[in-house]
Input
Amino acid sequence: MYRIDTDGAAFDQIAALPVDGLSAYAQALDVLKLVPWNGIPYNSEKPDGAMRTLMFGDGRGKVTYLILDDQLRVDVLKVMWFD
Output
């Protein structure tokens, strides 16, 4: 299981999520802890790259993150919510 670390800037983005967005984000974190490589590559030209995105909340949210396999860690870099 991967450990989740959250970048300082992402804390404000998470705090701004609506209630239903927070619930959906919590579910996304569960996915990242178990299978972070299931996310979409951030850069399509580097499909094996460790920087990824995962949509959540029925496509209304997106989390951008970096996988550090050697540390079993996922760093959450950015969280977005689309109204």
Q: What stands out?
A: The first strand starts at residue 3 and ends at 6. The chain has a mean pLDDT of 97. The CA atoms of residues 1 and 34 lie 5 Å apart.
